[in-house]
Design a protein that fits this description.
248 residues; five-stranded mixed sheet; single chain
Length: 248
């Protein structure tokens, strides 16, 4: 899951990920390299901000793998910084010790988006999606398990392809569940907060109303008592919500 992210400014086209200690590392022209305590990733530098996202247990398979090795995490802290410490950000949600880390970027040598994954295995899974609108696969933990709220969070981890992501989220919400009532408040809350990111003008109350409308629609149709919702119906409901927001 996504456990943190930062948009970093850097004068030089490199970003350091790892120990909070100042790095003592000579890097070459490779897209990424490491000394065991730090990973250096080549980025676009001061041309624009570079987004670094930290994942644990699951991460979208996006772009190219530029590093797959071992990093020693000290004190459960992972620091993201530029060469001159103009930006310095520390995440404290990763466990301590030497562990496998996978780094993917959108463009080696000129990265604008850097994904850093902890606790990952080699297995990839396809996310729930509607027909003809697939979402990026995700690399998961060694046990290969994805709980429903975690899958929903991965579906809603971005705002690209909003109709495809919202329709996929509706399909997940509509799946049969033993822990009634379903969809539950937490998962509807994930959708509500994601809707807020689609348009800067939408308030929490407006997004909450739309999220509740989705839940009410699924409960009224009693789809969770069957095999879920058909792709076309999920797409139609997603389109209705996006239209209500005035985004088409």
């Amino acid at each position: 899951m996504l456990v943190g992210a930062v948009d970093i400014y850097a004068n030089h086209p490199v970003v350091f990920i790892g120990s909070t200690d100042p790095p003592e590392l000579d890097w070459d022209d490779a897209p990424a390299c490491s000394n065991g305590k730090h990973i250096v990733v080549r980025t676009r530098g001061q041309s624009a901000l570079t987004r670094v996202s930290i994942w644990h247990g699951a991460m979208p398979v996006i772009g190219d793998v530029v590093f797959d090795g071992v990093l020693n995490v000290e004190g459960s802290r992972v620091c993201v910084a530029d060469l001159e410490n103009l930006t310095r950000w520390v995440n404290r949600t990763v466990v301590s010790g030497s562990q496998r880390v996978v780094v993917c970027v959108d463009d080696p040598d000129h990265a604008s988006r850097v994904h850093v994954g902890f606790g990952l295995g080699d297995r990839s899974l396809a996310l729930t999606a509607v027909a003809r609108h697939p979402l990026p696969a995700v690399r998961v933990a060694p046990d290969g398990q994805l709980l429903r709220p975690n899958e929903l969070g991965l579906i809603l981890d971005g705002h690209d392809s909003p109709l495809a992501r919202l329709a996929a989220a509706i399909k997940v919400l509509a799946l049969p569940a033993d822990d009634k009532p379903w969809p539950n408040r937490y998962c509807i809350g994930l959708v509500t907060e994601w809707l807020r990111g689609l348009a800067s003008r939408i308030s929490f109350a407006e997004a909450e109303t739309l999220g509740q409308e989705i839940a009410d629609r699924l409960r009224a149709d009693d789809v969770s008592a069957t095999d879920g919702i058909e792709d076309e119906a999920a797409w139609t409901l997603a389109t209705h919500v996006v239209d209500r927001m005035g985004l088409r």
